[in-house]
Amino acid sequence: MMAIVFLLILISVLTTAAGFYQLNNLKAKKVLKFSVFAFSLIIAFFLFVIMPQAAKAEGATNPVSSTAFLAAALSTGLATIGAGYAVGAVGSSALGAVSEDPKILGKTLIYVGLAEGIAIYGLIISIMILGRV
Predict the structure, then answer these.
(1) Residues 124, 129, 132, 133, Cα dihedral to 10°
(2) Are 66 and 47 in contact (CB under 8 A)?
(3) Distance (Å, rounded) from C-alpha 103 to C-alpha 75?
(4) CA–CA dist 5, 10 (Å, integer)
């Protein structure tokens, strides 16, 4: 467990250092991509392997409940990340369209609202998952 924490700290420092190095040198993109990829893999390993065991060790009597909480958290988290990306893309396009023709503001707000609906769907799924626990 300590080795994994040490590895996480090492890759975090490597990612930060590569980011600062990136400001001055364009050749560090490969180092930054590798360290971000490695950090993502370690976080995924932590979430899927170590976290359910830690939740079970903390006193969860039902092993399904710890994985259900993880599933609910992932469904909400990934849905909000997707919604944030969609709102960013749609919102900037809508702002550009409204700046050219102010009469289409209402139509563009509909598209932004549809993009925000993705987060609500993730929240509904997590509530459904937690309702079965």
Answers:
(1) -130
(2) no
(3) 37
(4) 9
Query: What radius of gyration, in Å, describes the C-alpha atoms of the chain?
Result: 21
Q: Strand, helix or coil at 107?
A: helix
Using an 8 Å Cβ cutoff, are 66 and 52 in contact?
Answer: yes
The pLDDT tens digits of the residues spanning 3-21 come to: 767 777 777 777 777 667 6
Token pair listed for 46: 């932590």
Provide the token pair at 14.
């490597």
Note the pLDDT tens digit of each residue in 66-79: 678 888 888 898 89
Question: What does the alpha-carbon distance between residue 89 and residue 116 come to, in Å, rounded to a whole number?
Answer: 12
Chain centre distance of CA 61: 29
Q: How far apart are CA 16 and CA 14, in angstroms?
A: 5
pTM check: above 0.85: no
